[in-house]
What does this fold into?
Amino acid sequence: MLKQISIYAENKKGMLQSVTDILAREEINIMGSVTNDSAEYGIIRMVVSDPEKALEAISKEGYICRKTDVLGVELDDNPGALNRLLVSLLEGNINVDYLYLSFNRDSGMPIMILHVDSIYEVKNCLQAKGHCVL
It folds into this structure.
């Protein structure tokens, strides 16, 4: 299971760079990320090399952030791989809150980062269907 940090930030120019600057200073690698915005605020979600250190450093700079459990599912790098994962989730009656793409830097394989309810049940379901859950 992976840990994700979610940062709540004002939707203004330079905000994302401000967050990445903090991570760069702390020598924390971003392994996957996605941003969502609204008119005034956005959420930056990231899987990073050291989530505890990232959470502490970003919080110290005044950002509201939290740590969340997410699943990483390694996929084959070919057409239909994501669809096969989504079919498995549908067959398991599993709702996905959101997902985003990352890569396994060792194997070069794509990894879908998933946020779901009942993370342990989902992990077991996907493993039973032959998926590689990190």
The CA atoms of residues 31 and 105 lie 9 Å apart. DSSP finds four helices and seven strands in the chain. The mean pLDDT is 94. The longest helix spans residues 15-25.
